Inverse folding.
């Protein structure tokens, strides 16, 4: 056996199955890091959008003007999208002379649907990170077992085995486990971190929906009280 213990040397010496597993795990690692950067930017953008919208909303801005301003944008997402969905449904139901409870319920359902879409978008690619973090170590372990098995089969064909003959075969097999852990650890950390961030955003969205529903309920009651008997 060759004594080249560099990473490239061990990769080239490995069997085809182990090489295939290494390449697969490297591909998973590259995809995981790509999704990690994408999700990090997306969640940071969602938090920034939420803070900016809350500043405008709670500054006492007129709801009609705020809705018109947001609706004029080409792309509305996050809390702004939830607000637009709810306010649009509120105006539609109020024009149809729906009861106060019907207006509030319909508005809340519209916002709930919009929130589900926003959360679904924020959770995009997270299942891949969870899967990569769960199965990568086992794929790497399979490559290690396969490599060590081949190393011992090769040793069985010689009369006298030495450490110099065993070390390269075992080292090239253990590379697969190392790559599996390299792919799994960042994916698990990112998945847990992003899941927590998505949960916090979802809670913030739900709190806003409750507060906004209460505001719209007061407006609906006030509007019906002003109507002539």
């Amino acid at each position: 056996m060759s004594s080249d213990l560099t990473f490239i040397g061990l990769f080239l010496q490995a069997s085809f199955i182990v090489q295939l597993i290494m390449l697969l795990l490297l591909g998973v690692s590259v995809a995981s890091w790509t999704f990690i950067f994408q999700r990090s930017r997306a969640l940071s953008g969602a938090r920034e959008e939420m803070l900016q919208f809350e500043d405008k909303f709670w500054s006492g801005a007129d709801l009609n003007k705020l809705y018109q301003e947001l609706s004029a944008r080409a792309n509305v997402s996050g809390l702004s999208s939830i607000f637009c969905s709810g306010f649009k449904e509120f105006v539609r139901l109020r024009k149809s002379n729906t009861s106060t409870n019907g207006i509030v319920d319909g508005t809340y359902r519209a916002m709930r649907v919009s929130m589900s879409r926003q959360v679904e978008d924020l959770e995009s690619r997270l299942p891949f990170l969870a899967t990569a973090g769960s199965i990568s170590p086992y794929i790497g372990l399979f490559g290690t077992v396969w490599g060590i098995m081949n190393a011992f089969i090769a040793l069985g064909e010689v009369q006298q085995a030495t450490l110099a003959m065993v070390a390269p075969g075992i080292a090239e097999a253990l590379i697969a486990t190392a790559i599996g852990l390299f792919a799994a650890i960042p994916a698990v950390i990112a998945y847990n971190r992003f899941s927590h961030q998505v949960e916090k955003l979802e809670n913030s969205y739900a709190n806003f929906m409750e507060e906004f529903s209460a505001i719209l309920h007061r407006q609906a009651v006030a509007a019906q009280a002003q109507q002539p008997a």
The chain has a mean pLDDT of 87.
